[in-house]
Amino acid sequence: ATVPVVIPAHTVPRISPPVRRPRIPMTTSLDDVLRYWENGEPEKDLTVPLKLWTSTYGSDEYDQGEAVKLGQIQSIRDEFVIHCGSDYSRFEERYPGLRGQYTKLLKAVRCARQERGEAKSRRRRK
Question: 41 has which bridge partners?
Fold first, then answer.
């Protein structure tokens, strides 16, 4: 007769589900920037607002590309809140027609930051 082998529970390896790295959804406007920063967007898997990312996640928990996007979004958010006083009219005066054009807005904000001496332009690679 064969005797069943019993493996104690503490030696059975537990398989945990793969951990999904946090991702920032596609950002297309100032409104996306402000919503993602303040509230997140659970419908798009952004369950933690971006303003809490650095205190919630370690830098090893999200990809470098997400870190770049986080910095870009923060610079646009800061431009709106700090330099435009959270005033949509003032924002529109400084960045006419760019509220819904994320890429062009990002470029314009970078230029404004460079003009104020808050950012340096990088040398282009050959």
Answer: 46
Closest CA to 48 of 61, 60, 30: 61
Q: What does the DSSP assignment read for 16-59? A: PPPPPPP-PPP--SHHHHHHHHHT-BGGGTB-S-GGGHHHHS-G
Q: How many residues does the chain have?
A: 126
The amino acid present at 122, given as its one-letter code, is R
Give ∠ CA 10-15-17 in degrees, rounded to 5. 145
| Domain spans in the chain, listed from the N-terminal domain onward | 22-115
The token pair at 90 is: 């003032």
Per-position pLDDT tens, the chain of length 126? 677 766 565 655 666 555 678 899 999 999 999 999 999 999 999 999 999 999 999 888 888 999 999 999 999 999 999 999 999 999 999 999 999 999 999 999 999 999 999 888 777 666
Nearest to 48 by CA among 59, 38, 58: 38
Burial 86-110 (b: 16+ CB within 10 A, else e): eeeeebeebbeebbeebeebbebbb
